[in-house]
Amino acid sequence: MNPSPSHRAAQDVDAAAVVAAATALAAGELVGVATDGFLALAARADRPETRMALWEASARAGASSPSLLRCPDRLELSCECAGLVRRIAQRHWPGPLILEVRAEGDEMRWSNDAWMPLCCPAEPHARALAEAAKVPLLLATIPQATDATSFRRLTGTERVLGSRQNALSELPAWLRVARGVFELRRDGLYSLDTLRTSAGLAIGFVCTGNTCRSPMAESLARRLLAKRLGVEPSRIGDFGFRVLSMGTFAAPYQPASAHSVEAVRELGGDLTGHRSQVATWKLLADLQRVYCLTRVHMDQVRLLLPADWPGQLALLDEHRDVTDPIGGSLVDYRECARQIRAALERRLEEWL
Question: Is the pTM of this model over 0.70?
Fold first, then answer.
């Protein structure tokens, strides 16, 4: 289990004070609200005038850059790498983590910059306020404010919801995620390795001998992931992705067949360094997605997987088995590779 801040009980939030603060926001005011270990300025994100007022007050008070409050159970994102961002949020929110994403739609833009910081504090006052306001909120943390009195003095804002009682003593970690970018811009409770593990997926492909179909799926999956992530195939691990293949009756350390190498090369992949391996329970248990090339392979893999395995087992091409091209011509291997690529392209939406 990942470390996470303790959640204060819902009854700790003063419902009447939340409604009063939401009413003040609706009138165009800025309000103070407790977040994880700090007090923050809050403003409605749907109005240009309140956004500008927040920027000006934040600059005067020495606040951190504003972030947009989102909740993991309502995380409908229009941004690059939305699947990765959603997995990180579902794993670590509510909590002290800001996810800075590159917006792809006007509904997620609140400045001229396409970068959009998102947050969801574990401290419940900000979430309660957003629920009452019924609109997204911008939050700007005031690290210098040690209590409500100093907050009012620094910001000129009289209404403060909650107090600085959370035990956290550092600002939230700040992760920037987009095509070509997975960067921890500010350290915090979560390490870069932890966030990578949360973002990506460990994906495996299974056929019989691991010299034709599953190696082609592995190589083409790497290429498709890399293209969507905006990096070279060797860098998909930077986003937490791990891709491998295996065979239910593989002879270990065998190279991919010559026709497989050529068919994948024509589609932009590379199998020259491939060596086969046997599907074992240990290899499979560490994966989050396992795709079999035929239904027979699925039956064989089910016998190997632990009963409590939390991952997903599926047929790679949900419409049909991928026929073994072994013994066939290069034309047969090309057709097989194209079927595999088409199936992978449909799977991409689940991964990213």
Answer: yes
